Amino acid sequence: MRAKAAIDQATDDIVGLFENRVADQKTPGSFFAVFGPDGIVLERGFGETVLGNETAPDHDTVFRIASCTKSFTCTMLLMLRDRGQLNLDATITDFVPAFRALAPEAAPVTPSVRMLMTMSAGFPTDNPWGDRMEEMTRAELDEFVSTGIRYSSTPGTRFEYSNLGYALLNEVITEITGRSYLEAMTTEILEPLGLSSTRFDEDPDADVALGYRLANGAWQVQPFTLPGVFSAMGGLFSTATDLVRWSLWLAGALEPEDTSAGPLSAASRRELQQIQRVVPEGTSKVAEFSEPTAHGYGYGLFVDEGTTKIVSHSGGYPGFSAHMRWHAPTGLGIVAFENGTFAASSIPATQALQAALNSYGELTVPAPAWPETLAARDVFDGLIRNWDTPSAEAVASVNLALDVPYEERIAGIAKAIGEVGPLTDAALTELPRELRDTPAVTNWTIAGERGRIRCHILMSPELPPRVQTFTVTTENH
Fold first, then answer.
1. Residue 358, Cα to own-chain centre: how many angstroms?
2. What angle (nearest 5°) sits at the alpha carbon of residue 129, between those of residues 199 and 69?
3. What is the pTM (predicted TM-score) of this model?
4. In the CATH scheme, what is the code of domain 371-476?
5. What SS3 state is found at 190?
6. CATH topology for 2-80+177-360?
Protein backbone atom coordinates (compact mmCIF):
# COMPACT_ATOMS: atom_id res chain seq x y z
CA MET A 1 0.00 0.00 0.00
CA ARG A 2 2.82 2.41 0.80
CA ALA A 3 4.39 1.82 -2.63
CA LYS A 4 1.10 2.58 -4.37
CA ALA A 5 0.59 5.72 -2.32
CA ALA A 6 4.06 6.95 -3.27
CA ILE A 7 3.46 6.28 -6.96
CA ASP A 8 0.03 7.93 -6.82
CA GLN A 9 1.54 11.03 -5.22
CA ALA A 10 4.25 11.24 -7.90
CA THR A 11 1.99 10.41 -10.87
CA ASP A 12 1.96 13.89 -12.41
CA ASP A 13 5.75 14.18 -12.22
CA ILE A 14 6.28 10.69 -13.64
CA VAL A 15 3.86 11.12 -16.54
CA GLY A 16 5.38 14.50 -17.33
CA LEU A 17 8.79 12.91 -17.85
CA PHE A 18 7.46 10.70 -20.66
CA GLU A 19 4.57 12.54 -22.28
CA ASN A 20 6.74 14.85 -24.42
CA ARG A 21 9.17 12.17 -25.58
CA VAL A 22 7.29 11.73 -28.86
CA ALA A 23 6.73 15.46 -29.47
CA ASP A 24 10.44 16.06 -28.84
CA GLN A 25 11.28 13.40 -31.48
CA LYS A 26 13.13 11.21 -29.03
CA THR A 27 11.06 8.27 -30.25
CA PRO A 28 7.92 7.45 -32.28
CA GLY A 29 6.44 5.57 -29.32
CA SER A 30 7.05 5.44 -25.58
CA PHE A 31 5.71 3.28 -22.75
CA PHE A 32 6.49 2.98 -19.06
CA ALA A 33 5.15 0.92 -16.18
CA VAL A 34 5.94 1.78 -12.55
CA PHE A 35 5.49 -1.14 -10.18
CA GLY A 36 5.43 -2.01 -6.51
CA PRO A 37 5.89 -5.38 -4.84
CA ASP A 38 2.46 -6.52 -6.06
CA GLY A 39 2.84 -5.51 -9.71
CA ILE A 40 2.15 -2.57 -12.04
CA VAL A 41 0.62 0.48 -10.34
CA LEU A 42 0.99 3.18 -13.01
CA GLU A 43 1.41 2.86 -16.78
CA ARG A 44 1.14 5.10 -19.81
CA GLY A 45 1.80 4.82 -23.53
CA PHE A 46 2.42 7.65 -25.99
CA GLY A 47 2.87 7.90 -29.74
CA GLU A 48 2.67 4.92 -32.05
CA THR A 49 4.00 1.37 -32.08
CA VAL A 50 4.06 1.50 -35.89
CA LEU A 51 3.97 4.88 -37.56
CA GLY A 52 0.62 5.37 -39.24
CA ASN A 53 -1.35 2.89 -37.14
CA GLU A 54 -2.29 5.53 -34.51
CA THR A 55 -1.94 2.89 -31.77
CA ALA A 56 -0.06 3.80 -28.63
CA PRO A 57 1.97 1.06 -26.92
CA ASP A 58 0.58 -0.67 -23.84
CA HIS A 59 1.79 -3.29 -21.36
CA ASP A 60 1.36 -6.07 -23.93
CA THR A 61 3.23 -4.33 -26.75
CA VAL A 62 6.38 -6.23 -27.70
CA PHE A 63 9.66 -4.30 -27.85
CA ARG A 64 13.21 -5.46 -28.24
CA ILE A 65 14.84 -5.22 -24.80
CA ALA A 66 18.42 -5.56 -26.08
CA SER A 67 21.00 -5.72 -23.27
CA CYS A 68 18.38 -6.32 -20.59
CA THR A 69 18.85 -9.86 -21.99
CA LYS A 70 22.16 -10.12 -20.14
CA SER A 71 20.50 -10.78 -16.78
CA PHE A 72 18.66 -13.72 -18.35
CA THR A 73 21.94 -15.10 -19.72
CA CYS A 74 23.65 -14.83 -16.34
CA THR A 75 20.69 -16.50 -14.65
CA MET A 76 21.22 -19.52 -16.90
CA LEU A 77 24.93 -19.57 -16.11
CA LEU A 78 24.33 -19.52 -12.36
CA MET A 79 21.79 -22.32 -12.77
CA LEU A 80 24.50 -24.41 -14.44
CA ARG A 81 26.94 -23.43 -11.69
CA ASP A 82 24.47 -24.45 -8.99
CA ARG A 83 23.96 -27.83 -10.67
CA GLY A 84 27.70 -28.48 -10.55
CA GLN A 85 28.02 -28.33 -14.33
CA LEU A 86 29.98 -25.06 -14.56
CA ASN A 87 32.97 -23.59 -12.76
CA LEU A 88 32.71 -19.82 -13.18
CA ASP A 89 36.49 -19.59 -13.03
CA ALA A 90 36.99 -21.97 -15.94
CA THR A 91 38.70 -20.29 -18.89
CA ILE A 92 36.77 -19.58 -22.05
CA THR A 93 39.06 -21.90 -24.02
CA ASP A 94 37.41 -24.81 -22.18
CA PHE A 95 34.30 -24.04 -24.21
CA VAL A 96 35.65 -22.16 -27.24
CA PRO A 97 38.99 -23.83 -28.03
CA ALA A 98 39.44 -21.55 -31.05
CA PHE A 99 39.75 -18.49 -28.80
CA ARG A 100 43.12 -16.75 -29.11
CA ALA A 101 44.16 -13.43 -27.63
CA LEU A 102 46.78 -11.02 -28.87
CA ALA A 103 48.42 -8.05 -27.09
CA PRO A 104 49.28 -7.28 -24.40
CA GLU A 105 51.66 -10.20 -24.51
CA ALA A 106 53.12 -9.15 -21.17
CA ALA A 107 49.98 -10.40 -19.44
CA PRO A 108 48.89 -13.58 -21.21
CA VAL A 109 45.73 -14.20 -19.14
CA THR A 110 42.90 -16.21 -20.66
CA PRO A 111 39.53 -14.72 -19.62
CA SER A 112 37.33 -16.84 -17.38
CA VAL A 113 33.56 -17.24 -17.52
CA ARG A 114 33.28 -15.00 -14.47
CA MET A 115 35.33 -12.27 -16.15
CA LEU A 116 33.05 -12.40 -19.18
CA MET A 117 29.92 -12.20 -16.99
CA THR A 118 31.28 -9.20 -15.08
CA MET A 119 32.62 -7.25 -18.06
CA SER A 120 36.22 -7.64 -16.97
CA ALA A 121 37.62 -9.90 -19.71
CA GLY A 122 39.85 -7.12 -21.07
CA PHE A 123 37.94 -6.61 -24.34
CA PRO A 124 37.32 -3.11 -25.74
CA THR A 125 33.86 -1.57 -25.37
CA ASP A 126 31.90 -2.59 -28.46
CA ASN A 127 28.33 -1.31 -28.33
CA PRO A 128 27.95 0.01 -31.91
CA TRP A 129 29.81 -2.97 -33.38
CA GLY A 130 28.15 -5.58 -31.17
CA ASP A 131 24.66 -4.30 -31.98
CA ARG A 132 25.23 -5.36 -35.60
CA MET A 133 26.61 -8.81 -34.85
CA GLU A 134 23.56 -10.69 -33.56
CA GLU A 135 23.19 -12.99 -36.57
CA MET A 136 26.78 -14.27 -36.40
CA THR A 137 26.85 -18.08 -36.44
CA ARG A 138 28.85 -20.38 -34.19
CA ALA A 139 31.20 -21.22 -37.06
CA GLU A 140 31.71 -17.55 -37.83
CA LEU A 141 32.42 -16.83 -34.16
CA ASP A 142 35.04 -19.59 -34.07
CA GLU A 143 36.69 -18.17 -37.16
CA PHE A 144 36.54 -14.65 -35.72
CA VAL A 145 38.13 -15.46 -32.34
CA SER A 146 40.73 -17.78 -33.88
CA THR A 147 42.34 -14.80 -35.59
CA GLY A 148 42.93 -13.23 -32.17
CA ILE A 149 41.24 -10.75 -29.85
CA ARG A 150 43.00 -7.52 -28.99
CA TYR A 151 42.90 -6.77 -25.26
CA SER A 152 42.39 -3.20 -24.11
CA SER A 153 43.34 -4.15 -20.54
CA THR A 154 44.69 -7.17 -18.74
CA PRO A 155 41.82 -9.63 -18.19
CA GLY A 156 40.44 -9.57 -14.67
CA THR A 157 41.71 -6.11 -13.76
CA ARG A 158 39.02 -3.59 -14.74
CA PHE A 159 35.46 -3.10 -15.98
CA GLU A 160 34.85 -2.50 -19.67
CA TYR A 161 31.46 -3.21 -21.21
CA SER A 162 31.69 -6.02 -23.77
CA ASN A 163 29.01 -7.61 -25.92
CA LEU A 164 31.59 -9.97 -27.44
CA GLY A 165 32.05 -11.45 -23.97
CA TYR A 166 28.37 -12.40 -23.88
CA ALA A 167 28.55 -13.95 -27.34
CA LEU A 168 31.23 -16.23 -25.92
CA LEU A 169 28.92 -17.01 -22.98
CA ASN A 170 26.38 -18.17 -25.55
CA GLU A 171 28.86 -20.89 -26.39
CA VAL A 172 29.37 -21.83 -22.74
CA ILE A 173 25.63 -22.49 -22.34
CA THR A 174 25.44 -24.39 -25.63
CA GLU A 175 28.43 -26.60 -24.84
CA ILE A 176 27.24 -27.52 -21.35
CA THR A 177 23.55 -28.09 -22.11
CA GLY A 178 24.01 -29.75 -25.50
CA ARG A 179 21.22 -27.50 -26.79
CA SER A 180 21.15 -24.21 -28.58
CA TYR A 181 21.29 -21.13 -26.40
CA LEU A 182 17.76 -20.21 -27.52
CA GLU A 183 16.33 -23.61 -26.65
CA ALA A 184 18.06 -23.76 -23.28
CA MET A 185 16.90 -20.27 -22.30
CA THR A 186 13.33 -20.88 -23.43
CA THR A 187 12.82 -24.23 -21.73
CA GLU A 188 14.86 -23.53 -18.58
CA ILE A 189 13.86 -19.90 -17.80
CA LEU A 190 11.18 -18.31 -19.96
CA GLU A 191 8.63 -21.15 -19.85
CA PRO A 192 9.02 -22.01 -16.13
CA LEU A 193 8.53 -18.34 -15.19
CA GLY A 194 5.51 -17.94 -17.45
CA LEU A 195 7.17 -15.27 -19.58
CA SER A 196 5.02 -16.19 -22.54
CA SER A 197 5.59 -12.97 -24.49
CA THR A 198 9.37 -13.05 -24.11
CA ARG A 199 11.21 -14.73 -26.97
CA PHE A 200 14.17 -14.44 -29.31
CA ASP A 201 12.25 -13.81 -32.51
CA GLU A 202 9.34 -11.71 -33.69
CA ASP A 203 5.95 -13.19 -32.80
CA PRO A 204 3.73 -12.69 -35.88
CA ASP A 205 0.59 -12.84 -33.72
CA ALA A 206 1.71 -10.22 -31.20
CA ASP A 207 1.52 -6.44 -31.13
CA VAL A 208 5.14 -5.79 -32.04
CA ALA A 209 6.56 -2.27 -32.14
CA LEU A 210 8.73 -1.43 -35.11
CA GLY A 211 12.07 0.26 -34.48
CA TYR A 212 12.99 3.58 -36.06
CA ARG A 213 15.99 5.85 -36.58
CA LEU A 214 15.64 9.60 -37.01
CA ALA A 215 17.39 10.79 -40.19
CA ASN A 216 17.04 14.32 -41.59
CA GLY A 217 13.92 14.90 -39.51
CA ALA A 218 12.16 11.73 -40.66
CA TRP A 219 11.80 8.33 -38.99
CA GLN A 220 13.24 5.36 -40.89
CA VAL A 221 12.30 1.76 -40.08
CA GLN A 222 15.15 -0.42 -38.81
CA PRO A 223 14.98 -4.09 -39.83
CA PHE A 224 14.91 -6.81 -37.17
CA THR A 225 17.95 -9.03 -36.90
CA LEU A 226 17.62 -12.78 -36.55
CA PRO A 227 18.96 -14.86 -33.64
CA GLY A 228 22.63 -15.85 -33.58
CA VAL A 229 25.50 -16.18 -31.12
CA PHE A 230 25.23 -12.52 -30.08
CA SER A 231 21.62 -13.10 -28.95
CA ALA A 232 23.03 -13.80 -25.48
CA MET A 233 23.96 -10.14 -25.19
CA GLY A 234 20.72 -8.60 -26.41
CA GLY A 235 18.41 -10.79 -28.45
CA LEU A 236 15.18 -10.83 -26.46
CA PHE A 237 11.80 -9.36 -27.36
CA SER A 238 9.50 -8.73 -24.38
CA THR A 239 6.59 -6.76 -22.95
CA ALA A 240 6.13 -4.62 -19.87
CA THR A 241 3.96 -7.36 -18.36
CA ASP A 242 6.77 -9.89 -18.65
CA LEU A 243 9.67 -7.59 -17.79
CA VAL A 244 7.92 -6.42 -14.61
CA ARG A 245 7.38 -10.06 -13.68
CA TRP A 246 11.08 -10.74 -14.31
CA SER A 247 12.14 -7.68 -12.31
CA LEU A 248 9.94 -8.63 -9.36
CA TRP A 249 11.26 -12.20 -9.39
CA LEU A 250 14.80 -10.88 -9.14
CA ALA A 251 14.01 -8.07 -6.70
CA GLY A 252 12.00 -10.36 -4.43
CA ALA A 253 15.10 -12.40 -3.63
CA LEU A 254 16.54 -9.38 -1.84
CA GLU A 255 13.81 -9.69 0.80
CA PRO A 256 14.82 -11.90 3.75
CA GLU A 257 11.39 -13.57 3.77
CA ASP A 258 11.39 -14.32 0.03
CA THR A 259 9.88 -17.72 -0.75
CA SER A 260 9.30 -17.28 -4.48
CA ALA A 261 9.95 -20.35 -6.55
CA GLY A 262 11.67 -20.49 -9.90
CA PRO A 263 14.57 -22.00 -11.79
CA LEU A 264 17.21 -20.14 -9.76
CA SER A 265 17.44 -20.06 -5.97
CA ALA A 266 16.89 -16.85 -4.02
CA ALA A 267 20.52 -17.00 -2.84
CA SER A 268 21.83 -17.07 -6.41
CA ARG A 269 19.41 -14.34 -7.48
CA ARG A 270 20.83 -12.18 -4.70
CA GLU A 271 24.29 -12.98 -6.03
CA LEU A 272 23.27 -11.63 -9.44
CA GLN A 273 22.51 -8.31 -7.75
CA GLN A 274 25.76 -7.82 -5.83
CA ILE A 275 28.64 -5.72 -7.14
CA GLN A 276 31.18 -8.11 -8.62
CA ARG A 277 33.23 -5.50 -10.48
CA VAL A 278 33.45 -1.80 -9.59
CA VAL A 279 32.74 0.54 -12.49
CA PRO A 280 35.46 3.25 -12.71
CA GLU A 281 34.68 6.86 -11.88
CA GLY A 282 33.59 8.85 -14.89
CA THR A 283 31.67 5.97 -16.42
CA SER A 284 28.15 7.13 -17.20
CA LYS A 285 25.48 6.48 -14.60
CA VAL A 286 22.17 8.13 -13.85
CA ALA A 287 21.29 7.07 -10.32
CA GLU A 288 20.44 9.97 -8.03
CA PHE A 289 21.36 9.76 -4.36
CA SER A 290 22.03 12.31 -1.66
CA GLU A 291 25.27 10.57 -0.66
CA PRO A 292 28.05 8.81 -2.54
CA THR A 293 27.33 5.30 -3.72
CA ALA A 294 29.33 2.38 -4.97
CA HIS A 295 28.59 1.82 -8.66
CA GLY A 296 29.39 -1.52 -10.20
CA TYR A 297 28.37 -4.51 -12.26
CA GLY A 298 26.97 -7.73 -10.88
CA TYR A 299 26.10 -10.61 -13.16
CA GLY A 300 24.23 -9.02 -16.07
CA LEU A 301 23.02 -6.14 -13.90
CA PHE A 302 24.29 -2.74 -12.77
CA VAL A 303 24.17 -2.06 -9.04
CA ASP A 304 24.23 1.27 -7.17
CA GLU A 305 24.71 0.75 -3.48
CA GLY A 306 25.09 3.11 -0.55
CA THR A 307 22.66 3.45 2.35
CA THR A 308 20.14 2.15 -0.18
CA LYS A 309 20.34 -0.08 -3.25
CA ILE A 310 19.16 0.20 -6.86
CA VAL A 311 19.58 -2.52 -9.48
CA SER A 312 19.18 -1.76 -13.18
CA HIS A 313 20.09 -2.43 -16.77
CA SER A 314 19.52 -0.62 -20.03
CA GLY A 315 19.09 -1.99 -23.51
CA GLY A 316 19.88 -0.21 -26.75
CA TYR A 317 19.52 -1.67 -30.24
CA PRO A 318 19.05 -0.17 -33.69
CA GLY A 319 15.50 1.15 -33.40
CA PHE A 320 14.96 0.44 -29.70
CA SER A 321 15.69 1.55 -26.17
CA ALA A 322 14.69 -0.27 -22.98
CA HIS A 323 15.36 0.11 -19.29
CA MET A 324 14.50 -1.75 -16.08
CA ARG A 325 15.38 -0.72 -12.53
CA TRP A 326 14.18 -1.39 -9.01
CA HIS A 327 14.82 -0.11 -5.52
CA ALA A 328 15.50 -3.08 -3.30
CA PRO A 329 14.31 -1.81 0.12
CA THR A 330 10.89 -0.55 -1.04
CA GLY A 331 10.12 -2.87 -3.97
CA LEU A 332 9.46 0.17 -6.19
CA GLY A 333 10.60 -0.18 -9.79
CA ILE A 334 10.04 0.80 -13.40
CA VAL A 335 10.37 -0.60 -16.89
CA ALA A 336 10.41 1.64 -19.96
CA PHE A 337 10.42 1.00 -23.70
CA GLU A 338 10.85 3.25 -26.70
CA ASN A 339 11.15 2.47 -30.40
CA GLY A 340 13.73 5.07 -31.39
CA THR A 341 17.46 4.55 -31.83
CA PHE A 342 19.47 6.27 -29.06
CA ALA A 343 16.21 7.25 -27.31
CA ALA A 344 17.88 6.68 -23.90
CA SER A 345 14.73 5.64 -22.06
CA SER A 346 16.97 5.17 -19.02
CA ILE A 347 16.96 8.93 -18.41
CA PRO A 348 13.21 9.48 -17.85
CA ALA A 349 12.92 6.04 -16.23
CA THR A 350 15.57 6.89 -13.64
CA GLN A 351 14.03 10.27 -12.93
CA ALA A 352 10.57 8.69 -12.67
CA LEU A 353 11.67 6.12 -10.11
CA GLN A 354 13.43 8.85 -8.16
CA ALA A 355 10.19 10.85 -8.10
CA ALA A 356 8.37 7.85 -6.63
CA LEU A 357 11.12 7.34 -4.06
CA ASN A 358 10.99 11.01 -3.09
CA SER A 359 7.29 10.55 -2.33
CA TYR A 360 7.85 7.34 -0.40
CA GLY A 361 9.48 8.95 2.62
CA GLU A 362 11.98 6.96 4.67
CA LEU A 363 13.51 4.55 2.17
CA THR A 364 15.45 2.24 4.42
CA VAL A 365 14.72 1.05 7.94
CA PRO A 366 17.68 -0.01 10.09
CA ALA A 367 17.85 -3.68 11.00
CA PRO A 368 16.37 -4.39 14.45
CA ALA A 369 18.64 -5.70 17.19
CA TRP A 370 18.56 -9.39 18.03
CA PRO A 371 16.66 -10.29 21.22
CA GLU A 372 20.00 -11.54 22.58
CA THR A 373 21.54 -8.13 21.89
CA LEU A 374 18.82 -6.36 23.85
CA ALA A 375 19.03 -8.89 26.69
CA ALA A 376 22.80 -8.35 26.93
CA ARG A 377 22.22 -4.58 26.91
CA ASP A 378 19.99 -4.94 29.97
CA VAL A 379 22.63 -7.01 31.77
CA PHE A 380 25.41 -4.51 31.08
CA ASP A 381 23.20 -1.57 31.93
CA GLY A 382 22.81 -3.13 35.36
CA LEU A 383 26.53 -3.85 35.60
CA ILE A 384 27.37 -0.18 35.08
CA ARG A 385 25.13 0.70 37.99
CA ASN A 386 26.30 -2.20 40.16
CA TRP A 387 29.13 -4.37 38.83
CA ASP A 388 28.94 -8.14 39.33
CA THR A 389 31.60 -10.24 37.58
CA PRO A 390 29.63 -13.54 37.48
CA SER A 391 26.76 -11.72 35.76
CA ALA A 392 29.20 -10.30 33.19
CA GLU A 393 30.78 -13.71 32.61
CA ALA A 394 27.34 -15.22 31.97
CA VAL A 395 26.90 -13.18 28.77
CA ALA A 396 30.49 -12.26 27.82
CA SER A 397 32.42 -13.80 24.96
CA VAL A 398 35.77 -15.38 25.73
CA ASN A 399 37.69 -12.36 24.43
CA LEU A 400 36.03 -9.70 26.58
CA ALA A 401 38.11 -10.13 29.75
CA LEU A 402 41.23 -10.94 27.71
CA ASP A 403 41.01 -7.70 25.72
CA VAL A 404 40.41 -5.51 28.79
CA PRO A 405 40.52 -7.20 32.23
CA TYR A 406 37.44 -6.69 34.36
CA GLU A 407 39.44 -4.67 36.90
CA GLU A 408 40.21 -2.10 34.18
CA ARG A 409 36.59 -2.09 33.02
CA ILE A 410 35.37 -1.50 36.60
CA ALA A 411 37.83 1.39 36.95
CA GLY A 412 36.72 2.83 33.60
CA ILE A 413 33.07 2.72 34.65
CA ALA A 414 33.90 4.41 37.97
CA LYS A 415 35.80 7.15 36.13
CA ALA A 416 32.83 7.71 33.76
CA ILE A 417 30.40 7.93 36.67
CA GLY A 418 32.73 10.41 38.34
CA GLU A 419 32.60 12.65 35.26
CA VAL A 420 28.81 12.67 34.77
CA GLY A 421 27.38 11.41 38.04
CA PRO A 422 26.03 10.59 40.33
CA LEU A 423 23.73 8.48 38.15
CA THR A 424 20.01 9.17 38.29
CA ASP A 425 17.31 6.55 38.76
CA ALA A 426 16.05 7.10 35.19
CA ALA A 427 15.80 4.07 32.95
CA LEU A 428 18.29 3.67 30.10
CA THR A 429 17.65 5.55 26.87
CA GLU A 430 18.02 3.42 23.75
CA LEU A 431 19.67 5.47 20.98
CA PRO A 432 18.00 5.52 17.55
CA ARG A 433 19.31 2.78 15.30
CA GLU A 434 21.34 3.85 12.28
CA LEU A 435 21.47 2.20 8.87
CA ARG A 436 24.98 0.97 9.58
CA ASP A 437 23.86 -0.86 12.73
CA THR A 438 23.65 -4.62 12.37
CA PRO A 439 21.39 -6.79 14.57
CA ALA A 440 24.49 -7.54 16.68
CA VAL A 441 24.87 -3.88 17.74
CA THR A 442 23.05 -1.62 20.15
CA ASN A 443 23.80 1.74 21.80
CA TRP A 444 22.18 3.37 24.83
CA THR A 445 22.76 6.08 27.39
CA ILE A 446 22.55 6.28 31.19
CA ALA A 447 21.71 9.67 32.69
CA GLY A 448 23.84 11.35 35.36
CA GLU A 449 23.38 14.70 37.08
CA ARG A 450 26.13 16.38 35.01
CA GLY A 451 25.92 14.41 31.77
CA ARG A 452 25.38 10.91 30.50
CA ILE A 453 27.29 7.70 29.82
CA ARG A 454 27.07 6.40 26.26
CA CYS A 455 27.27 2.60 26.09
CA HIS A 456 27.93 0.29 23.15
CA ILE A 457 27.91 -3.48 22.77
CA LEU A 458 28.65 -5.77 19.82
CA MET A 459 27.65 -9.42 19.93
CA SER A 460 29.78 -12.33 18.71
CA PRO A 461 28.82 -14.74 15.89
CA GLU A 462 28.37 -17.60 18.38
CA LEU A 463 25.08 -19.34 19.01
CA PRO A 464 23.81 -17.99 21.28
CA PRO A 465 25.58 -14.66 20.64
CA ARG A 466 27.70 -13.25 23.46
CA VAL A 467 29.14 -9.79 24.14
CA GLN A 468 32.49 -9.38 22.34
CA THR A 469 32.75 -5.57 22.61
CA PHE A 470 31.61 -3.32 25.45
CA THR A 471 32.59 0.36 25.65
CA VAL A 472 31.54 3.41 27.64
CA THR A 473 32.18 7.07 26.87
CA THR A 474 30.89 10.23 28.53
CA GLU A 475 28.94 13.22 27.31
CA ASN A 476 28.63 16.27 29.60
CA HIS A 477 25.65 18.61 29.64
1. 20
2. 25
3. 0.88
4. 3.10.450
5. helix
6. Beta-lactamase (3.40.710)
